[in-house]
Amino acid sequence: MTQGWLEKVTGSFDDKKRWRQYKARKEQLPGPYRTTIDALERYFTYAGAIVKGDVLMQMLEDLADLVEGAAADGTPVRSIVGEDPVEFAETFISNYSDGQWINKERKRLADSINQAAAGDA
Fold it and tell me: Where residue 36 sits, what CATH number does that domain have?
């Protein structure tokens, strides 16, 4: 009972645990890969506007998998993100659009217009 109430106030304990595990994974990466994942994470935080904790964590864990694999294989950073890191980031984010706040606003707009249109009839 207490855990449920506390999670409503502070957020999911599972998401917090996943966040700490993700941060620990990042710290194990060699310098250039850690810099890359930090930069992408920062961009995702601002540009992705993902408000669902589980979607955000899945995206970051998938990013960690990708970068860890590249580091283990010795794949250069440019081979991961290409010549246009913004394009890479935008494409990556697009796979997680379910958690973006804009989807909620799009639905709200459509519902409002549908309600208004129904009142016209």
Answer: 1.10.1900.10
Domain around 67? 2-120
Structure pTM? 0.75
Query: 15: closest CA among 45, 60, 63?
Result: 60
**Tens-digit pLDDT profile for residues 25-55:** 999 999 999 999 999 999 988 887 777 788 8
Task: For residue range 7-20, list pLDDT tens digits in order.
Answer: 555 556 888 899 99
Count of domains for the chain:
1
The residue with tokens 């250069």 is 76
Q: Which amino acid is at 43?
A: Y
Contact partners, residue 63, CB within 8 Å, separation at least 6: 37, 40, 41, 44, 92
The C-alpha atoms of residue 78 and residue 87 are separated, in whole angstroms, by 13
